[in-house]
Each structure stands twice: as structure tokens, then as C-alpha cells.
Amino acid sequence: MDVEAEIDRLPIDLLAHIFVLFTSFTDLAQASGVCKKWKQGVKESLARRHNLSFAGWKMDDDSTARLVFHAYNLTKLEIPRSCWGCQITDAGLLRISFAKCISNLTSISLWGLTGITDEGVVQLISRTRSLQRLNVGGTFITDESLFTIARSCPKLETIVLWSCRHVTENGLFALVDQCLKLKSMNVWGTRVPVECLNNLLIVSPALQIKV
Amino acid sequence: MSETDLAVIKPEMMKPYVWLQTSDDSIQQVEQEIAMFSPLICQEIIQKGMGSSKNCAICLPQQVSPAMLSLILDYCRFHQVPGRSNKERKSYDEKFVRIDTERLCELTSAADSLQLKPLVDLTSRALARIIEGKTPEEIRDIFHLPDDLTEEEKLEPLRNITADPRIRLLNRLYAKKRKELKERGRLKNVEVEEEHVDERSVDDLLSFINGNDGDPKGVKTSKNKKKNRRKKEQQKNSSLKEASEMNKKEVNGHDIRHQSSEAERISETSYLPYAEDDTFSPKVEFDDGDIDDEIDPALKEKIDREVEDFARRLNSDWPERMQELLSSGQERKTMLFTTDGFLRRQACMFSPCVTVFFLIHHMLSN
Question: What is the CATH number of domain A49-210?
Fold first, then answer.
């Protein structure tokens, strides 16, 4: 090519800035297939992202882990169950837990991921240090996960345990006892008795419990 | 200037100006208030005191051409006016970025170099809208970009986006293409191997041995000759085991196991077309079947006699001769003798015609 294309003169960081504005992962993938510079730009755009949401996308362990690995500066990660069904498993959460961004995450949503268990959640949460909001509603986690959350997330402010039917009062007490900044808790659909919830309010009067 | 003249002067005429120098060295006078929209220009004015006169004009980055500067100043002038509604601003912005892609890219680059974040965001969003929903080929056409990705890089499965049925189909297509590429690669390798075969005629070989620069005439080998060659290769392979066993025996009172193993190693690692075990008896046997058929009997007899004579002479003082050969850069060519006293070649690096030439050359030098 004799004349350099005008867009080719843009520095990679500016290309990355353009790619950050893409809302679709399809477009990102297509852009990475244009040329080597754009491929690098796409990687850098992922590294710049602070929020990454896979809502509405049919993601599997491999693709999710690869994207999260490139997103070094991520603070908010959403991997909710989409209309396509859940394909994320404990193996995926384990791989994600080794990503650089995990210790900086302030918000994680694993809403409705029926393929995950305590094993994956414990691996992921035990590596977070700055978590403030956690949504594990609609999953099959037990108190084991809640004990890990209580130990690893001292800054936790909001937790959604919507329809987590295997959670008991022991796990909730551990949360309230150790997460001193906890302000809000959604326990709709759990099997925890009302008396227990009243006891939680005695321990932490400022706590908002959504039933 | 009289008081009446001063009264006529409007407030906007009192505005201070700054001098800006663009990439083509042209200098423009711009209202300071508008120029200060750019943090870069602002820094130059406040910290360095530049732009106050034509002589100390602020040098703008290379990316800022006069055309781009005027566009940027128009944008700044509009947004600098107070009291405009958000709707008005949005409408202006939409119209502002309705320019051809080349100019839009240039504008993005210029705005970025002047650190005008709102304009960078605006133009970047416009570029993102152009790119969205396009295939890599379409994007390359729009922006005139080079296609510098390798076939393998292009055919990488797009794993991040399995939700899109188009991508699933694309991945299947890519898988097919990858298979085709591999097959093509295999075919190329086969062709390369075939090219190694020495297809030269006897005349060419003889002229090469005699040192003449005759024009080579390619003689195509017939099917029978090719069959003949295959048969000879099979015979040769069957005799390999015997040859290796003989090599491991002590010859002339010297244990030459280490030499034979070295030769075997060379023959294994060598990819040259003639790097096979050949036994040179007094009758010089060529690998090429077609050469055997077409060689002049009288000449053949003469060569046989000379080689036999050379082999006999060589046999009398072979250890010293071996040393000589090895020291003269022939280490890769391990020469051994069988109990009959005939020369055996392990992993010869040359084609048969060159070997004959080598033997005759040595004989003549003695």
C-alpha cells in the first residue's frame, strides 16, 4: 500500500479508546481480524475496560476467562445467566480467579449460574480483596461460600442471595459478624426463618434485609 | 485615537489573540479564549508565555493541519457560547461528525494531539458507529487498511462470540479452510521432495565431470527407467542392514564402531537427496537407473578400471589417507572399508557424479 491509511496513523491507545465504545463482543472480534495493529488495539481496549458484562451473551469457560485475563483494570464483572443458558462452570471460575484484575474487583455478579458450586465460588472470592457488591442469586451455593465471603471481603456492602435455598442462618451470621460494612442483603426465596433474620437485625441494626 | 473612536470599539474587538503555527508552518491568529479550550495550548500560554506574537507562535503537533485546526476552532466556538441547550449541542455534534471517514480519522488524531477530550470522544464514537456491524473485509475497504494477518491468525476461531449464529457458521468455514491449507502444505512438501531427484542426462553429467560448460539438455526419464530406479532403491534398502552389521566388525585390526555409529547418525539427520548408504565396489554403481542404461560401455569400462586402480592404491595406506580426507573438510563424509578392501561410503553428501569426480581428482593429483 503506497499511501498510509488515515486511520492507520492513529496511535494504538486511540484505537483502543474507539474499541472501548463497542457494545458488542461480535464487533470486537471482527475488529481484531482486520490487521495486527487492530488486534493489539482490541487487546488494549479490553485492558482499559472497568466494566465487563456478559449479560445476553452465550459465554463458556474458555472465552470468559480469556476476556477477563485481558481486562487488567476491571472493577466490575458481570457473568449473569443469559437466555442462552448457563455454560460457566467451576473450572471457568477457577481460571478467572487467576486473572490480574480479580484483586481489584469491587463488584461481581454470578446471578443464576446454575453450573457453579461452592468449589468455584470459594476459589474466586478468596482472591478478591476489594469486593463491595456481590450477586450470587439463583446459584446452588451453601454456607461454605458464605464463610469464605465473610473471611475475604471485609469491604462488602451489598450481597444478593436471592433464591439460594441451601444457605442457612450460620452462613448469614458469619457474614454479618465479619463484614462490618454490610448495608444490604437480599435473602428472598431462601429457607432462612424470619426469627433468624430478626436476630441478624439485632446484631446489625443498620442492615437492610430484603425478603 | 479619540474618545468617540474608543466608544465605537466593541468588547469582542478587545479580545486577546494567540498565534498558532500548524503542521505546514502557516501561522494563524486565534482568540485566546477559544484556543485555551485545548489543555496543550493553555499550558503553552500559561507556563511558557508562548503565542503572544507572530515570532513566538505556539507550534501545534504534526497531526494538526490548517483544515483540521479550523474545524476544531469551529467546534470550540460553538461550545464556548453560554446558554445553549443540550439538545442544540447534540444536534450540532451530530452534524459536525457527518464527514467522510478519512477526514474523521484526521480530526480524531488532531483532537487527540490537542488533548481535546470531548471532541476525541465525539469523533471516536462516530468511528465506532462506522466500524460496528462490519466484517473485517468491509472495514479494510472503508479505511484502506493493509491485510497483514497470516492465514492462521485469520482462521483463529472467534471464541468470544458463540452467541452469534453467523460466527458459528464462520468458524465451520474457517475449520474447512485450515484443513485445505494443511493439505496444500503437504502437497508442496511432496513437490519439493520430487524436485530433489537428479534428472540430468548422461551428457550433462559427463560434461560436468570434464569441466565443460555445455548447454544442459534435459532428458525426460521414461516410466521403465523410473521403475528401474525404484527397484534399485529397494535393493539398496535391503542391503542396508548387512552393511551396518559389517561396519560394526573390526576392519584391518581397527575398531571402527564409533565411526560407523557417527555415519549412521549423519545419514539419519541428513535430508539431502543422496544421503543414503551406498557401497562403492570397483564397478561404480550410480543411484540413477537412467544413467546406468545410457552410459557408453567403453567409457564405463575405462572409469571402472581407473576407480579400481585408485581403490587398490588407497587401500595400501588408508589410515593416513583417511586423516587427509577428514582434515580437508570431508569430516561429514565417513569413509570405511569392508574386509574385501572395497570403499564403503556412509552418508555421502554428494550425488554419484560428484563422487566420481572427487575420486578421479584425487587419483590425478597423485
Answer: 3.80.10.10
> Chain A residue with minimal CA distance to B110?
A10
Amino acid letter, residue A89: T
Extents of the domains making up chain A:
1-48, 49-210
- pLDDT exceeds 70 at position B214: no
Does B120 lie at the interface with A, CB-CB under 8 angstroms?
A: yes
Q: Is pLDDT of A4 > 70?
A: no
Domains of chain B, first to last:
3-143 (3.30.710.10), 165-195+277-365 (no CATH)
Q: Give exposure, A16-26, as e/b (b: 16+ Cβ within 10 Å).
A: bbbbbbbeebb
Taking the CA of residue B310 as centre, how many other CA atoms within 13 Å lie in the half-sphere pointing to its CB? 24
The verdict on a CB contact (< 8 Å) between B125 and A67 is no
Kindly tell me if the per-residue pLDDT of A7 is higher than 70: yes
Neighbour order of strands in the sheet with B278-279: B278-279, B343-346, B334-337
Q: What is the pLDDT of residue B242?
A: 46
Burial pattern B151-183, b for ≥16 Cβ within 10 A else e, equals eeeebbbbbbbbbbeebeebbeebeeeeeeeee
**Distance, CA of B224 to CA of B222 (rounded, Å):** 5
Residues recorded for chain B: 366
Q: Which helix (H) or strand (E) holds B76?
A: helix B66-80
For residue B301, how many other CB atoms are within 10 A of its CB? 11
**How far away is chain B from the Cα of A95, in angstroms, using its nearest Cα?**
15
Radius of gyration, alpha carbons of chain A: 20
Do the beta carbons of residue A89 and residue A61 sit within 8 Å? yes
Residue B219's pLDDT band (cuts 50, 70, 90): very low
Helices (H) and strands (E) in chain A, counts: 9, 7
A79: which chain B residues are within 8 Å (Cβ-Cβ)? Answer: none
Average pLDDT, chain B: 64
Q: In this predicted structure, what is the pLDDT of residue A56? A: 80
Q: What would the pLDDT profile of B159-192 be if each residue is shown by its tens digit? A: 444 455 655 556 666 677 667 777 767 676 665 5
Distance CA B348, CA B320 (A): 20
The per-residue pLDDT for range A86-143, each reduced to its tens digit, is 668 999 999 899 898 999 899 999 989 989 999 899 989 998 879 998 999 999 899 9
CA distance B161 to B314: 74
Range in A193-197, B73-77, B310-314 with the lowest mean pLDDT: B310-314
